[in-house]
Write a structure and sequence with these properties.
Blueprint: E1 2-13, H1 21-25, E2 28-39, H2 58-64, E3 69-73, H3 78-87, E4 91-94, H4 100-116, E5 128-135, E6 141-145, H5 146-149, E7 163-164, H6 166-171, H7 177-192, H8 202-225
Parallel strand pairs: 1-3, 3-4
Antiparallel strand pairs: 1-2, 2-5, 4-7, 5-6
C-alpha cells in the first residue's frame, strides 16, 4: 500500500545548461509541491501505514529549509555563489543543479536518511520511502525512485556536500539535526559493507563519482562559453 504526504515551499534558483535561456541565465522562482510516497505491506497498531503526524518533525524541517531560500549548485560560477550567499540569509548549497529532477533525488536522499533513523515503535512494518515527486509548476513534475537516487550517471548526491545557511540552521529546534543524520548514514553504510564482497575499492569509486560530477560542470561551462 502507498500513502502520500504533500509539502509546499517557495524557492529560487538558476538551472544552468538547460535549453530555455530564461531559466539558465536568470534567477527565477517557483512554488514547489513535494509529494512523499511511503510504502508498506502491513499496518501499524493504528491500522495505518505510517502516521502522517510523524512527518511533521525532522522530515518537515528538512524540506522547509528550502522555503524562501536560494538553491545554489556548488558547480556554478564562484562569483555568483559568493554574491548570493552574501546577499541572502537563506540559501542551500547542493552538489547538483537545482532542477526538478535533481530536487526529487535530493529530497529522496534527505527523507530516506531521516526515515531510516526514525524509531518505529507503534507496530510499523517494513515502511520505506517509495518515491518522491517534485512539482516545479502546475503542469510539470519529476518523480524519483530509489534506483534514481543512487544512480551515479545522474550525479552523486553526497550528504556531506550539502550545506544549509547558518540562518536556516539556527531556526531548527535541533541545530544538530543534519550533522546527526549524516553521522547516522555513515554508520549505516559502514555496517552494510562486507569488505570481502566489495568489488570496487573506495578510491576507484571516488574517481568515478568525481569524473561524473566534473563532466556535469564541464558541460555547463562549455555551454556558458557559447553565449
Amino acid at each position: 500500500m502507498l500513502i502520500r504526504k504533500l509539502f509546499r515551499f517557495e524557492n529560487t534558483h538558476i538551472v544552468r545548461g538547460c535549453s530555455t535561456r530564461r531559466c539558465s541565465h536568470s534567477i527565477h522562482g517557483h512554488s514547489y509541491k513535494v509529494e512523499l510516497l511511503l510504502e508498506a505491506h502491513a499496518l501499524d497498531y493504528g491500522q495505518m501505514v505510517y502516521d502522517f503526524g510523524l512527518l511533521k518533525g525532522e522530515v518537515h524541517t528538512l524540506i522547509d529549509a528550502f522555503d524562501h531560500a536560494v538553491a545554489l549548485w556548488s558547480g556554478d560560477d564562484p562569483t555568483y555563489l559568493e554574491a548570493m550567499r552574501r546577499h541572502s540569509e537563506r540559501w542551500v548549497l547542493i552538489p547538483v543543479s537545482p532542477s526538478a529532477e535533481q530536487f526529487s533525488r535530493l529530497f529522496f536522499r534527505l527523507v530516506d536518511t531521516a526515515l531510516s533513523q526514525t524509531d518505529m515503535n507503534n507496530g510499523e512494518s517494513d515502511v520505506r520511502l517509495h518515491s518522491v515527486i517534485v512539482h516545479e509548476t502546475e503542469t510539470g513534475y519529476a518523480q524519483c525512485f530509489r534506483e534514481d537516487a543512487d544512480n551515479p550517471r545522474m550525479g552523486y548526491i553526497d550528504l556531506n556536500a550539502i550545506e544549509f545557511a547558518p540562518t536556516i540552521v539556527r531556526e531548527w529546534c535541533d541545530s544538530g539535526l543534519f550533522e546527526r543524520l549524516k553521522q547516522g548514514a555513515h554508520r549505516a553504510l559502514d555496517r552494510s559493507v562486507d569488505p570481502a564482497k566489495v568489488s570496487i575499492n573506495a578510491s576507484e569509486f571516488s574517481e568515478d563519482v568525481a569524473h561524473t560530477n566534473n563532466e556535469l560542470v564541464r558541460d555547463y561551462k562549455a555551454i556558458q562559453n557559447e553565449f
